[in-house]
Each structure stands twice: as C-alpha cells, then as structure tokens.
C-alpha cells in the first residue's frame, strides 16, 4: 500500500484567491483541520523576509491592448506610478507569508518534516524523542492508535516505514536505523513486504533489541504490554549513545487491568521524552495543536477572514491540554465588541461556566 492511498482523503480542492485588490492572483489550497497549505507554496526550507508587496506593480499600466497607446493623462509621455499597498511579510519568491505556512501540505509532508525535526534533535544531543501524528481516523484520545477498522494497522506501519526511510536519508546512507514493531508476527510480515527497506526490522519480543552499532531505534506504536521492554531497551541504548524515537505510542490505555504502578512507569517514561514533532487536530473547535523541534507549542484556530486557513492564537513552552486548552479556545472564540474587547457572557454561558468549574473542583478531589 502506498502512502498516496493513505493520504488521498486529505487532499482538498484548490481555489483561486485575489491578492489584496490587484489584478494578479495566486492559486492556494484550502487547509483541512489536519494539514493543508497553499499548493504552490515555497520549499519548506526557504527563509522569509520582511517586505512591502506592491499590488500589480509589475504590470503595464494604462497600455491599450489594441493600438499600444497609453490611457493616462493626455499629452503625458509616461503613465502615473502605481499605488502601493502594504500587505505584510513576503517570502523570497514574492508570495505572501502567513502564520499557518508551517503546517504540512499533506501526510507525506508531515512525515518528511517529522524526520527532519528528529534528525535535528538527535544532532543536538537528544536521545529520547517522541513523534505524534494524530490522524483522526487512526487516533483515540485515550488509547492512542486504536486500529479499529480492517487495514488500520497496516496504515500505521506504512507511516512508520515512510518515516524511518526519510530518517535514514537525512542521517546518511551508512546510518544504522532499526524499526521495532509490537510483535514477532508483524515484524516477519513486514520483512517480507519490504525487502528493500533501508532500515532493519525487529519486534518488541526479540531477546536483544539493541545491538552494537545501532544508531537509532524507532518504536512503532508501542503498546502497554511492551512498556517494560521498551523502557529497558531505551535505557540500554542511551547508555551506549544511541537515540530512541517513539512514533505514535499507545502506552496510555483505557483497558482494564492497567494498574497504578504501570501508569506511573508510563508517565515517568514519557515525561523524559522530547517531543520533536506533533500534529494534533482539534475537530471540536476547527483548530490544531502543532509543534516542530526546536519551536514552541502552537495553537491554531480557523481564520474566519480566510476560509480554509488557520491563524496562530497562542504560543507556549508546554502543551495546552484539558481545562487550560478549553479556556484558551473559549476566550479566542468569544466575539468582540466595537471597542475590540470581549463581550460579556450571557446567562447561558455563565451557567455553563459554573457547571464546568464545579466539575473541575470535583475532579481535583479525586
């Protein structure tokens, strides 16, 4: 199964948007809540510069298409200068720069950017790394990669294959990267399916996961039963200078039988990880949480002035979640008055806030 099949549903239709009152136009792509940006945007590595963008300044002004005569003032040898309009930042290729340009175009772009961020983190000395690509149809807030439908598991393995291949390409042709899958049967099937993979394939059931010479161990969707083995292998690999990457871990499980000791072990283990890439859609508010190493956590919400695009509303050193996320989203979505300040809450909103505060208090007593 190719990655194109996995990400085909993420590609939105293109549209044409006029550039701030000028006759020129550019083609852009409407963003889905997951990851879409303009289809003709610049390469991800290009730097942006501050510039004044002139609307239509490269067009001939007042030239007749029939006889070549000028439409300006009578007897004037040269046309009047065009009126300039400041529209903000611009990229090196002249296109306008927006906050959400850093969001990926599609699943391929997200995986490639995650690999680049991982390589950068490893080169800076980070040995414990975490990559989260929370695709809505494959992700559950409690259990992580639920893999509820037939074929979902293979989709997760294909994402891991593409990520590991991209990571090998960025680290170098002689790099020793090993992808570790949850069980031996899965690993055997994938070895037969990917005979030309540029990385080694192993399972969490193998007696020795880390071997001398391994540079990076990539754990694909590790589950609660493999937590102890993953933790021990990570410690051994770090002691020998090897890096570890968890891709979409599902160590947080709502299944019965997960005791307090395992939960604390999981929290301590994940707490040491460096999140090098995270893309978390928020369908309930048409937004997304995004992080790319070494940047901050960013919260994007839908931009009402640019349909299908997002605006940056919050940056923080830690991930917004739970009640803090709800508070920020509610404050940003609250309508503003003519003076630019937030409107006061109505009776219904006040009752909702009272109930929510009571629920938070009860939860704090548990």
Provide tags for this entry.
globular; 366 residues; 8 helices; 29% helix; nine-stranded mixed β-sheet; alpha/beta; two-stranded antiparallel ribbon; single chain
Beta-strand percent range: 15-25%
Structural class: alpha/beta
List the uncertain runs: 1-30, 32-76, 81-88
Secondary structure tally, helices: 8
Question: Can you give a write-up of this model?
Answer:
The protein is α/β, with parallel strands linked by helices. Helices cover 29% and strands 19% of the residues. The chain is built from eight helices and 15 strands. The strands form four sheets. A nine-stranded mixed sheet has the order 9-8-10-11-5-12-13-14-15, sandwiched between helices. Strands 1-2 form a two-stranded antiparallel ribbon. The longest helix has 20 residues, at 152-171. It is globular. The two termini are 46 Å apart.
């Amino acid at each position: 199964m190719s990655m194109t099949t996995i990400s085909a549903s993420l590609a939105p239709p293109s549209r044409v948007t006029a550039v701030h009152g000028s006759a020129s136009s550019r083609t852009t792509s409407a963003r889905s809540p997951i990851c879409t940006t303009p289809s003709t945007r610049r390469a991800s590595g290009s730097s942006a510069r501050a510039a004044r963008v002139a609307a239509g300044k490269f067009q001939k002004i007042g030239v007749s298409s029939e006889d070549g005569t000028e439409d300006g003032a009578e007897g004037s040898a040269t046309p009047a200068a065009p009126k300039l309009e400041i529209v903000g930042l611009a990229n090196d290729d002249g296109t306008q720069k927006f906050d959400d340009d850093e969001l990926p175009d599609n699943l391929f772009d997200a995986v490639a950017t995650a690999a680049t961020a991982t390589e950068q983190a490893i080169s800076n000395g980070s040995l414990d790394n975490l990559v989260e690509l929370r695709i809505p149809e494959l992700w559950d807030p409690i259990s992580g990669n639920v893999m509820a439908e037939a074929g979902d598991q293979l989709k997760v393995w294909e994402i891991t294959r593409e990520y590991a291949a991209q990571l090998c390409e960025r680290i170098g042709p002689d790099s020793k990267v090993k992808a570790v899958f949850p069980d031996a049967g899965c690993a055997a099937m994938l070895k037969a399916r990917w005979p030309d993979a540029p990385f080694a394939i192993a399972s969490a059931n193998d007696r020795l996961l880390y071997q001398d010479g391994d540079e990076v161990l990539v754990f694909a969707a590790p589950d609660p039963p493999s937590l102890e083995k993953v933790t021990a292998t990570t410690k051994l690999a770090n002691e020998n200078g090897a890096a570890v990457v968890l891709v979409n871990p599902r160590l947080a499980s709502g299944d019965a039988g997960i005791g307090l000791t395992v939960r604390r072990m999981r929290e301590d283990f994940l707490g040491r990880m460096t999140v090098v890439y995270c893309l978390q859609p928020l369908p309930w508010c048409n937004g997304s949480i995004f992080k790319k190493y070494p940047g901050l956590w960013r919260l994007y919400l839908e931009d009402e002035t640019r349909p299908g695009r997002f605006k940056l509303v919050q940056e923080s050193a830690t991930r917004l979640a739970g009640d803090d996320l709800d508070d920020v989203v509610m404050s940003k979505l609250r309508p503003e008055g003519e003076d630019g300040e937030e409107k006061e809450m109505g009776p219904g909103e006040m009752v909702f806030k009272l109930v929510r505060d009571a629920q938070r208090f009860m939860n704090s007593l548990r």
